[in-house]
């Protein structure tokens, strides 16, 4: 994969992530949301995070780094991104919180979600997505 191809793949992923973030903004401001709105908001947060993780994974693949399959693959991916300087500390922490939510969401009933915490995550999604986009394209410029 060339540097230009990598940038193109990342741009395409960020377009999808930005669509999710737009929907998150719309759902994240509802008072007394219906259960379906809560489920949709949580699923959009998880999907956005998954897209962000895919971008980091593409950068690692570009650097010829692979991760072992297993329970720790997702946290290792973030850790490698941090170690390579792709993810600054604050962004690494934000993504780690999103990974924890993704893992919780996969095991919880929607009725068990804490709306205050969910809205807190939702409110940080635009900043997290923009921060990752900035870091990714700065990194691509340096390779």
Please characterize this protein's 3D structure.
The protein is mostly helical and 143 residues long. It contains five helices and no strands. The chain has one domain: bsu32300-like (Four Helix Bundle (Hemerythrin (Met), subunit A), Up-down Bundle), CATH 1.20.120.580. The mean pLDDT is 90. The protein is 76% helix and 0% strand. It is globular and about 45 Å long.
Radius of gyration (CA) equals 15 Å
* Contiguous runs where pLDDT drops below 50 for at least 5 residues: none
Structural class: mainly alpha
Can you identify the CATH class?
Answer: Mainly Alpha
Distance between the termini: 12 Å
CATH superfamily: bsu32300-like
Major sheet size, sense and barrel closure: none
Helix content: over 70%
N-to-C order of helices and strands: HHHHH
Number of E strands: 0
Q: Would you give the CATH topology?
A: Four Helix Bundle (Hemerythrin (Met), subunit A)
Average pLDDT number: 90
What is the annotated CATH architecture? Answer: Up-down Bundle
Spatial shape: globular
**Total domain modules:** 1
Q: Number of DSSP helices?
A: 5
In terms of DSSP E residues, the strand content is under 5%
Oligomeric assembly: single chain
């Amino acid at each position: 994969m060339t540097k230009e191809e990598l940038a193109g793949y990342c741009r395409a992923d960020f377009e999808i992530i930005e669509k999710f973030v737009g929907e998150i903004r719309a759902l994240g401001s509802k008072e007394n949301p219906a259960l379906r709105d809560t489920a949709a908001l949580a699923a959009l947060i998880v999907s956005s995070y998954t897209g962000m993780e895919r971008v980091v994974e593409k950068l690692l693949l570009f650097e010829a780094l692979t991760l072992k399959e297993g329970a720790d693959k997702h946290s290792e991916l973030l850790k490698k991104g941090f170690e390579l300087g792709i993810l600054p500390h604050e962004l690494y922490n934000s993504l780690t919180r999103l990974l924890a939510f993704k893992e919780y969401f996969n095991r919880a009933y929607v009725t068990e979600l804490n709306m205050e915490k969910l809205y807190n995550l939702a409110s940080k999604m635009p900043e997290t997505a923009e921060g990752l986009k900035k870091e990714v394209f700065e990194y691509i410029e340096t390779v």
